[in-house]
Amino acid sequence: MRSSPDRPSASGDGRPSGAVIAGLTALGLTVIAINAWLCDDAFITLRSVKHLVEGEGPVFNVGWRVQSFTHPAWMLILALAWAATREAFWTTIAVGLAVSGVALGVGVGRCRGWPGALVFVGALSCSRAFVEYSTAGLENPLTHLVIVGAAALLVLEVAPRQRLLAAGLLLSAAFLSRPDAALLLAPMFVHVDRRARAAGLTGRQRAWAWLLGATPAIAWELVSLVYYGALIPNTALAKLAVGSGLDRGQLITRGLAYVWRACAHDGVTFALVLAALVVPWLPERVGASRLRPLGRGAAAYIVYVIAIGGDFMEGRFLTAPALCGALALGQVRWSGRLALAVVPACGLVAALGARHPWWPDAGADGIDRSGPITDERSHYAASSSAWAWRPGRSMPDHPWRDAGEAGPESDERVVLFSTMGFYGYFAATDLHVIDAFALGDPLLARLPPVRRVDWKAGHLPRIIPDGYLRTLADDPSHIQIRDPGVARLYEVVVRVHHGPIFARGRAAAIFELLSGRASADIDPRRHHLAELVRIDAGALARRRKPVRFRDAGVELAFTGQVHALAFTLSPGQRYAISFYAGDTELERRELELAGDVDDPPQLIELAAPVRSFDRVHVLPLTMHGKRSLVLGRARN
């Protein structure tokens, strides 16, 4: 008699023994432990944790109700642990290891026999991204645990109503782990709901089960709306490229590069992602068809990651779909001999990548992080990894921590420090820390980011408005911001995030922020091109030194009739040259200058458009290896 696809058959398809579960879980956890580390971003959450436990609320800057973390459930778990130890580094690593150990144990226990369990753990222990982000201090371990719980629910036989309730709770847990993680489990919930309807549950019964399951997520959103005055984290506003001036094509290209980088640097992770997209759809006799809803979730999540341009942390957003692939492989009906061959094969593929998870090193703290995608563990390993600890050394041992403990040189109350994790956690509680990437600032997060050619996902810098720091330092209720549009937005922001929670008019201010009305007077182009260099063409002709400019380019102003243009530009780059009459763009030309980026500036000669113009905007489209470029006069 053929076994049902939802019920394991007898021989070879049963659960692994307790000894196998314990042994393989310990093996996987050992690999994770020797790679244990924390990144700077984890300490952004930890400062909110510290303030929450000390009675200041879950905020980064005391007195400002701003959600500077993306993962409320993870923040609360860390808060419980920190309250018991009052120590950040080892406590956070221990929490990551504990949650990862439970996730591994549950996952191993749901595999198909010891061969499936061996493939599951063997593949994950060779996935550099999965291993490294099972600590790091971010929410990945909790997301992994939720995914494993969803896989267990799909494999086990559970009554329809209880299954639907569990699916709703898991979906809520995914949302509270990280809002976009709900994409991973949404197809699973739809699948379970469809099966509940087929089993005879009425629409009312299913609606009540869904409502009960969604209660944790709904409760958090209500708390967030009342306390923070927002439905999404401030970090999401700051990091997502909405209003950044980037077109969809740029985002997709960068997102594809993010996924492809895993192929070159972390082949096992890339293979597991592909497994999540393929293995569940193999014939039912292979054994993984029950996890098709997770495969759909992994596909939806990968599309989302590509659509938002990926992330600056190499591999971080691929650990969840990679785990879905490992779970699918764990359900395959492997023979013992083939399963034993898979593990060394994974080890060999991992050895072809940038670093093997089985023998980590202390890293190089001076590694270049200027690229759009970086190996974060290598950067922080020398100062913030368990491997780098020595007796008498307090971790993390990083210059940003030293700067935070030392505090500002004067008695400043407001400090601008872009990498605000280590710095903010170890700084004084009453010090107001602002970062140009706006992760903890409700005003800057709503301003369009300044243009960057070599932009980094999640790192979209803002220009600090004139008068903003003085406003925060002197009296937040006395606005000294010079830009009228920004001042109007700040007036609403301070009422929502700084004033009393139940103050009159706060509800209307929250609506203005949520609807975007408070930002209506903000000119995006003015912020995107805030670093634009403006110079009179006649003054350029008299200058002995060239003009230096950055990503926003340089604008030349002309008076009178012009028939031709001649100037010098940095070589080895691409440029867009736009001719304007007032605010109207008359013509746009693109040119690429050959040569090495360190060669002397090249002479450019351009015929003028037929229509008269008064401005020319020279905009760099590339900045290969340069922080700034030059434009100079044409020499006689």
3D architecture notes:
Keywords: Membrane, Transmembrane, Transmembrane helix. This is Glycosyltransferase RgtA/B/C/D-like domain-containing protein. It comes from Enhygromyxa salina. The chain crosses the membrane at residues 20-38, 89-108, 165-186, 207-230. Helix 12 (248-265) packs across helix 13. The strands form three sheets. The protein has a five-stranded mixed β-sheet. Strands 4-11-6-9 form a four-stranded antiparallel β-sheet. A two-stranded parallel sheet has the order 1-2. The protein has 24 helices and eleven strands. Helix content is 48%, strand content 9%. By secondary structure, the protein is of the alpha+beta class. Among the domains are: 435-525, no CATH class; 531-633, Jelly Rolls (Sandwich). The protein is globular and about 85 Å long. Helix 19 links the parallel strand 1 (414-416) and strand 2.
| Residue windows where pLDDT falls under 50 for at least 5 positions | 1-11
Q: Shape from CA axes?
A: globular
The CATH class of the domain at 531-633: Mainly Beta
CATH overall fold name of the domain at 531-633: Jelly Rolls
Which CATH-level-2 architecture of the domain at 531-633?
Sandwich
How can the largest sheet be summarized? Answer: 5 strands, mixed
- Straight-line distance between termini: 93 Å
Strand order of the largest sheet: 3-5-10-7-8
Number of strands: 11
Question: Strand share of the residues?
Answer: 5-15%
Structural class: alpha+beta
Number of DSSP helical runs: 24
Any idea what the radius of gyration is? 27 Å
Q: Give the overall pLDDT as a whole number.
A: 92
Helix content: 40-55%
As an assembly, this protein is: single chain
Transmembrane segments: 20-38, 89-108, 165-186, 207-230
Protein name: Glycosyltransferase RgtA/B/C/D-like domain-containing protein
Keywords: Membrane, Transmembrane, Transmembrane helix
